[in-house]
Write the structure tokens for this entry.
Amino acid sequence: MAVLMVVLIASMVVAIVVGSVGITPSLIMHVLLQKLGIATDGVPTRAEQIIIWEIRVPRALLAATVGASLAVSGAAIQALVKNSIADPYILGVSSGASVGATAVILVGAFSFLGIYALPLAAFFGALIAVSMVFMLARVDGRTSVMRLLLAGIAVSMVFSAVTNFMLMMSKSQGGIQAVMQWMLGSLAGAKWSNSVIPLLVFVVVFSLLWLSYRQLNALLLGEETAMTMGFSVEKFRLYIIVLVSLLTGVAVSVSGSIGFVGLIIPHVVRMMIGSNYKWVLPLSALLGAIFIVWADIVARLAIAPEEMPIGIITALCGGPFFIWMLRRQRYHFGEGD
């Protein structure tokens, strides 16, 4: 964890340094000291201060937050359904969030909420989608894992169709372009006003998930084993789903649809340290943050001065990795598989 923390900090420094305007680490340090009130005089010009503090620092922070949020969400859902291919996209969380965000961008829904409109709409969309998935998956008072996955796929397709319908009916070319860019994933709109909320939500949700690591470990061993620990599996599933919906909805609202993070990062972590969620959750957060920070760096540099959608970068990395992982006969999900 210490090594990954150092790598994350170094990666964020690189993300702030890289760009069309040359920035040095010493300039970054000086601007940060100025903002903390430790240094009052210095070399950075007003333009450099704006570039560093108003543009690049929020973007690096948002990239780390989004990566950590999606990775932790994927890890939690995989334990919830005891299936290694589960992630927020497969259970409909992301497609529901997409409908909420598209409604805000194209129709102006929840506009009275100001800057909170997009994250709240994405959260409610995610919560509605995943609630539908769980209602469809419940049979005789129990939730079937197979039905959960199948219902998630079906609900995802329905919500994707709703998003496409709104796009087709919209007359605003600017709105359509904004939604298309959002659906491919981008951190170009990062600023302090939309970076703080996802960070706060991540800290709260991650803390609650980490405090539940024993229950998540028990779920990997089966419902019967989990019940012997004295907690209600059904209530715990609902609790985790609400937390994951909140975390994914807020992350997706500011970054757009970024795939594969919640799918591959937990796999990498389990290959490194096993399936104990006491360590899977924090290591997934760190590795996911590092992955998205570097994906954003590549997205900015690959076709400069234009910017490549970050979702393309994650797909190009995640797709081949997932195929390789499926071909490895030694890899298993959980301890008993």
